[in-house]
Amino acid sequence: MKLSFSDEDEKFRAEVALWLFENLVGEFEQLKFRGGPGDEHMFPLERKKWEQKLAQGGWTCIGWPKEYGGRGCSIEQQVIFNEEYARAGAPGRVGHIGEGLAGPTLIAFGSEAQKQKYLPGIAAGTALWCQGYSEPGAGSDLANVNTKAHFDEAKGKWIISGQKVWTSLAHESDYIFVIARTNPNSSAHKGLGFFLMKMDQPGIEVRGIRQLTGTSEFNEVFFDQAECDADDIVGQPGEGWAIAMGLLNFERGVSTLGQQMQFQNELNQIIDIAKANGKSQNPTIRQRIADAHIGLKIMRYNSMRMLSDTGDGGLQKEALIYKLFWATWHRDLGELAMDVLGPEAEILESGPYTLTRLQAMYLFVRSDTIYGGTNEIQRNIIAERGLGMPKEPKITA
Asked: What family name appears in the similarity comment (predicted)?
């Protein structure tokens, strides 16, 4: 496991920090520490402009190969960028699904024509993407998708019908990648396709889902005979499952270190409040703060181990524990925040009576143990894929 950085890496760190210091000012200064969990609805237009500002500075897609608009940065440099980005309080990335999921998937599995068509917009920060995976009956059990796709010979297009749910930032996105069933007689992971679709077209309707925080960061997306160009299926019909699983490897990648720095920012705020209101003198609170600090360090060391040994380009089995660990840790941090705030946790600051950052965080993290695979599903994955234990018996009628 690599726990240190070279002199060249540290120079890169200084370059990142300086650029952020010089550019996260003026119209962008209001974006500091905004757009995180429970706050994704804030400043959407300004954060889109910030995405393009990053692109102009060469700070989008830094891990992509240079021929596709990236910098070809090493794993170490990607880690550094994500850490410094969060340390500077830079806003939540509206382009992260395109940069971190759609782009790497196209680079790995897409045709050259698809790469030329879609990657430049992602790298420029002008094309935003969302993910069409979960459905009302297929959340953590992704292989149960029922969205249908059939090829219309007369139109020369794929026709998509069905429903997706929990689609983050669908209302802000230009494109969506969709898992749909190309063989109506197939079941489970067989007979699936991976499609690239425009959001702004007849047959696609986005409906916001009001969350506990009062915001609508994610959505339902309905497809009613929506069209996808013949050339915009990645791979072949029936290969969708393998491509979808390849994409999930990218989801557990270097951005995890930036996520942890955001967690550190939240913990730092909690500690500052505890010092100011005297809760830091409470031995139980002190122990819980210490436990949160220790958990965050464990998270970092496991991530560094996970990223130090990627085998044949994929993450090793250690990566299976990451989602379960951070989701549970973050949920507990939200509860710690409310206990440190005390009675103030239940008081809204001032008109128009919006939630404070920590209040929004506390409410939002209730979902951390659900989205991206529930804690229960994560434990099954660890047991079956990581430890080789027998699969859970299926219940038949």
From this structure: Belongs to the acyl-CoA dehydrogenase family.
